[in-house]
Structures are given as structure tokens and as C-alpha cells.
Amino acid sequence: MTDDGPPPTPRLARARRKDSISEQVKELIIEQHLRPGDRLPAEKELMTRFQASKGSVREALSALRSEGLIRTRTGPKGGVFLADMDPQRAMALLSSYFLFRSPTVNDIYAVRCELEPELAASVAGRLSEEDFASLERTMRLYDAEPKTAEEEYNQRMAELDFHSVLAGLCPNPVLGLFCGFLQTLLRETVVCRRIYDAPHPDLRDTGLHYQIRLMRALRAGDAQSARDIMSEHMAAARDYMVRMEADIVGRFL
User: What is the pTM of this model?
Assistant: First the structure.
């Protein structure tokens, strides 16, 4: 006879049931090839399908709503519909994970130096003229010398926007999401914000230098050149950011 421990409390049992139903709803979405905007079965149908109480089904739907996977519409044509989760929402959820586990600049760039060159290579030869126009719009935001510290900061953010646009164009959704998330970390991490606040006018020219070279490689469909240029760019950015982080941390110790 084995000792499986004490039986779960009613609250724990309800939580497990809620999680089980949430997962079954996700399986239903996949099995029925449902897409954002499609309606989920009515509450009574879900209760019958999953042999669950009204309370358990509602808790499961509430959890899915919190995840951003569904939305509720009231009225004659109301119901529960699948939502198209915005990448920014997904990144915000990931950012919350790091609230008490703040990564260092070196942590971020250890990953960025590996992923961003592959991102650049993955889009070479795949971009439309509209895609190139989106990238060029971000570059135009910092093609002139900044006149104030605020303008310089905004240009630094625009330089990150270039990489975020590139991530959004990636044919590999996993690679694109994680590269985009790295831009989010750079914007939100306290030490990175302090680095971006510090004046460093040479960075604008350096960033444009790499991006102009990268755009040429992307237009030529040269994946290896795109990979090499982005690798150089990330290595230079890492060296600068790590150096600045050490200076800032040293001043606050």
C-alpha cells in the first residue's frame, strides 16, 4: 500500500479542475482549427463536453481571458470569442517574470548576439518593398543630429525600433518573438534606461553605419553577409553597453 499523501483541499481541487478545462479548451481550439474572431461553444455546451460545473467552466474561461486568449461580447450576437494576442501583451507578461530577476546587460547581449544575426539571415531575400519602407521609416527618425538630450534618447529608442520591426518580419515566429522581447528588456531594464539617458552622439552614426550595410545585404538576399554584419553590430553594442553598465553600477555603489 502506498502513501499518496493527504487528499487535495477543495480549493486545490477546483484549481486543478480549472486548469484541466483551460487546457481542454485549447485542445478544442486546435482540433477545430479555430482562429481569432471565431466563437467558442456556448457555456452549456462546454459544461456538457467537459462534464464540468458552471463554476469550473467560468473559472477556466476567466483564466483564458486573463491570458489574453479570449474576449467576451455581450448582446444578441454576444458570446466568447478567440482573441488575437498582441505580441506586446505576450512580451509584457514575459517582462513581469523578470520584475524580481532583473537581467544584466551581459545576460541580454549573451542571447542577443546569438539570435539577432540569425534573425537578419532569416529575412534576407524575403522582404517586400513595403517591409523595406517600414525599416527605412525608423532610420529616418535618427538620420539627423539630435539637438537636445530628449531627441538623442528618442533616436536611441528608434534604433531599437528598427530591430523590433525586423523581428516582426521574421518568418520564424519563435525567433521573432524572442528577438522582439530582447528589445523590450532593453527598453525596460533600469540600468539600460540610464545608459540610454547618457549622451553619446557617436552611437547614432555607428548604428546607421551597420544598418545601411545590413539593408544592402537584405536587398541583395545575401543571408551570410546579413548574419556577419548583424554579428559585428551586436558585438560592438554589447561592448559599449557592458562598459557603460560597469560605469553606472560603479557610481551607484
Answer: 0.73
One-letter amino acid of 115: L
220 three-state secondary structure: helix
What pLDDT, in 10s, does the model give residues 13-70?
A: 556 777 888 889 889 998 999 998 999 999 899 999 989 889 889 998 888 888 888 8
- d(Cα 221, Cα 228) in Å, to the nearest integer? 13
> CA-CA distance, 72 to 83, in Å (whole number)?
9
**Contact between residue 80 and residue 72 where contact means Cβ atoms under 8 Å apart:** yes
Q: What is the distance between the alpha carbons of residues 241 and 104, in angstroms, rounded to a whole number? A: 10
Query: Cell numbers at residue 197, please?
Result: 539617458
**Computed from CA positions of residues 60, 61, 65, 68, in that sequence, does the dihedral angle turn out positive or negative?**
positive
Residues, the chain, total?
A: 253
